[in-house]
Amino acid sequence: YESSSFLTYESFDSSIRTTCNRTKEPRLDQMIQVSGNCSGGVNGKEILLVSVTNLGIITGTDQLAIRFGADFAASTRLVNSTVQKTYVLVETPSTSMYKKSSMIDLTITNILSTNRQGITKFRYIAAPSLTSAVFNAFGSSLAISFSDKTNIFSMEVARRSDCNIFLHPLTMAKIGESAACTWNDERTLNIMLSYGASILPNDKIDIKPEILKDSSNLGPYCNGQVQITAPSGLAKPAFQLVGPQKVGPCDTVEFMALGSFARPLTFNWKCLQCQQVTQTRLSLNSADRISLSGSDFVDSAGTYEIQVYGTNFLGAKSDTLVLQFEKTSLPIPVVSLSGFDSFSKFDEIIFEAKTAFSTCSQQVELQFKWTQLEVPGENTNYLIPNSALARNSPTFFLAKGTLSTP
Question: Which domain of life is it from (predicted)?
């Protein structure tokens, strides 16, 4: 009788592998439901399900040393342990070591056999912090940056644009109640300031507590403040200088600096050939308009020049604008033109010439003459009827469809 025997060996992987998942339950004694990756807030209290292969049979968590970096787990519960795999529920500890979200080592060691140790990565999630607040080149808006992505896009769209939702009332008072907030991305908030806002470089932006946190919605809420800085480059403010080209001997005239600004400019005015006392008075006027009367001029007739520049709250200075005007020896009426500056061929076109007489001149009936001018670099429509141009009236009128070009 002959026989043979065979010895069969089962392949066995002796390596130690560790997995970790966040669970939904807030306590260790509830049913386990995996809800996310191996992460949790620096404020602790997240429950993780950790599994380790080939750690050895564990009968209680007192046989394990579970560390998050240098910190031990807040509490643990053994779920199951076999020769092949051990499952443990772990409550994350709170820590003050990490001011920014960080990856650390999560280690599980069998203290009865210290060479049996599982290691995986755990992400501690900190609250995003305010890192910078910078004016744009015009001073009309602020760009606020955060250290990490926030959970802003988990909010309703209407709430994202309401600055009152996440900015402190003291900040709101300085940016203006009608300031608008938009988010360029999860880390960048743009604040369009209200007209007349008072906020300045070196002021602080304050965030309301209990509103924003990490984009994962884990970890503590964001709070704190950041100091505002001026932009690296400034844009020149721009405006128009408006005033008459001729002034009667007894007129009081007004010159205005007109423009759209993030907030009012401080203006510097000069009048060349004006009386010295007038120059002194203008040097004390920082408003956007000045008034001059006949007594301000040296000569009864001649050419004068107004100069003005503006400076904004960031210190950016505009170009100096110049307007020359003639002071006449006889009172003359001042004519201004009113009407829209763009029309289509389907509109009636109406312009009205309004007349203002000098205070010391007699009001008489005026003769009006209308002239069509060619604007350099623009297409000129030559189909305006001569009859309309020749009309002696303070009102210029074209019926619908007169012009062929819309």
Answer: Eukaryota
- Report the CATH number at residue 211: 2.60.40
Query: Would you state the structure tokens that stand for residue 58, as one six-digit string?
Result: 């564990």
Residues 311 and 355 in one domain: no
Q: Are residues 290 and 196 in the same domain?
A: no
Same domain, residue pair 208 and 175: yes
Please report the pLDDT score of residue 26 as a whole number.
59
Q: Could you list the residue range(s) of the whole structural domain that residue 25 is in?
A: 18-125
Surface-to-core class of residue 26, CB atoms within 10 Å of its CB (0-12 exposed, 13-18 middle, 19+ buried): exposed
Residue 264 burial by CB count (10 A; 0-12/13-18/19+): exposed, middle or buried?
middle
Domain presence at residue 11: no
Sheet of 39-41, strands arranged across: 39-41, 117-125, 102-110, 64-68, 71-72
What pTM does this model have?
0.67
Half-sphere exposure of 114 (CA within 13 A, CB side): 0
Mean pLDDT confidence for 278-284: 91
Share of the chain above pLDDT 90, in %: 51
